[in-house]
Structures are given as structure tokens and as C-alpha cells.
Amino acid sequence: MDHHATPLIAFYRGEASDHKGRQIDELWGLSPFWLEHTHDYIQWLFPIPEAGRFNSFAPTLTGDDRQAFADDATLRARQQTSLDVMLSFFGLERENETITATPSLNMREHIWLKAGGHNHLRISRMIRSLAYCHQPALAASLKDGVIRIGQEQGIVSDASIRYWREASK
Questions:
Q1: CA distance 101 to 5
Q2: Average model confidence (pLDDT) for the chain?
Q3: Which residues pair with 98 in a beta bridge?
Q4: Are the C-beta atoms of residues 26 and 85 closer than 8 Å to each other?
Q5: In this predicted structure, what is the pLDDT of residue 2?
Q6: SS3 for 98?
Q7: With 50 as the cut, is the pLDDT of residue 1 above it?
Q8: Would you say 162 and 108 are in contact if contact means Cβ atoms under 8 Å apart?
Q9: DSSP string covering 42-85, please?
């Protein structure tokens, strides 16, 4: 089914840029330092229906967008690429729907393993977005992976774990 290209769908298809003129493939190639210190891209890579407090330029996920993800395996595959970029940033990796820690995962370089912070919000958004974009099994795997790894190798707060559990519902 051919969907009207909303700004979000056009961005995900590589046909349009985000609010700062960045193409999706550019975001996929950015450094971990950039990913950590820039806060206006995650809403484009992992859209949800609610507007974010910090990036009023980011699109919200509409019913039409959700239907486009449901109907288009290429859009879902491109979101999986976004997931793989963020997993690498977090010191994680994915094989199909299994999320595991990389050998280099450590608290000094992967601050999501600490009690809280903005990366925990990013993870919540990622789980929710995957679920909304018709990838519920992947959302559940991400949730299970970050909870398991966060508890085994980090000091992730109980509050964050509760948010992650709720995010995929």
C-alpha cells in the first residue's frame, strides 16, 4: 500500500531530512560522542504519538504513520537499523530479536548502566516506538535485554526498570 509521505515517513524512506536538514543515513553514521550529546534526533528515529518536551520540531507518530510501518517491511527494517545504531552506542548488539552485551560494555563508557539519566528515557522511547511501529516482539526483546543486562552489569534504578516494563504494553 502506498502511503502519503508524512514528514516522518519521508524521513524514514530517505526522501526528506529532519528539522535540521539531516538525512536518516547521516544520523546512522554519527559518532557515539555526538549521539550522547545531541538530544534532538531520537524523536525522529523512534517516534511516539506524544510530543516531546524538548524537541517541538520532531513529528509525532500518527495513525497513518503507524499504518505505514504496519504495511511496509522496508520501513520496519530501516527502524531496525536505527535500533542497531543505538544498541551499538549502548554497548549492545542484536542478532535477530536477541539483545546481548558486547564484550566492551562497561559503566565508564556506557552511562546507561548507571542509576538514571537521559539515556534511560531514550530506551523507554525506543521500546515504545518499536511497539507502536508494529515490531512488538523486538520491543519486548529490547525491554528484556536492557533489564537483564542493566541488572547484571549495572546499577539501573528500579524506577527505570518499571518504566521499561511499562513501555512495551
A1: 36
A2: 93
A3: 95
A4: no
A5: 53
A6: strand
A7: no
A8: no
A9: HHHHS--SSPPSS-TTSPP--HHHHHHHHH-HHHHHHHHHHHHH
